[in-house]
Amino acid sequence: MNLVETKTIGYVRRDLQSLHDWTNHQFGMKSMSSSRVAFDRTHKWFGYEVILLKPNAKIKKGHWDARVNRLGDRILPGWDCALLCHYRPGVGMKRHRDHPVFEPLVALVNIGRGTFRIGKDEYHLEDGQVIQFDSSIPHELLPVVSDRWSLSFRRIKP
Hints:
This protein has helices spanning about 15-25, 65-75, and strands at about 5-10, 30, 40-50, 60, 80-85, 95, 105-110, 115-120, 120-125, 130-135, 140, 150-155. By secondary structure, the protein is mainly beta.
């Protein structure tokens, strides 16, 4: 039984163009060359950075940004970390479950378009769509056709 229903919880509409501009001006994006799940993707952590080692993750201070803080407080009150990811055309993310260091609930802002598969269900995400989902359920991003960004907010388990 899923504890979190996958659903749309809103849209970024009024500030969508400024959000696109903001993503295109992010510096310090890193790659995860050792990842078997998220290859050719770049990312940046806000709030706390979580280095996904197994069995224990390493947690340290991430970047700070007022826009990220305001958005996170609106869509996932009490969030600890936000992960900004950039996917170039042809890049996706293999089927996986998120690291157990995180609580299952994720709130994700989709910037661009993409097809997201959670369990056996497929979601065609629109530009500016905000969804919540259970990250303990296997999920994947199909390879994107054009540049896509996502900003996902999570809580770290106590």
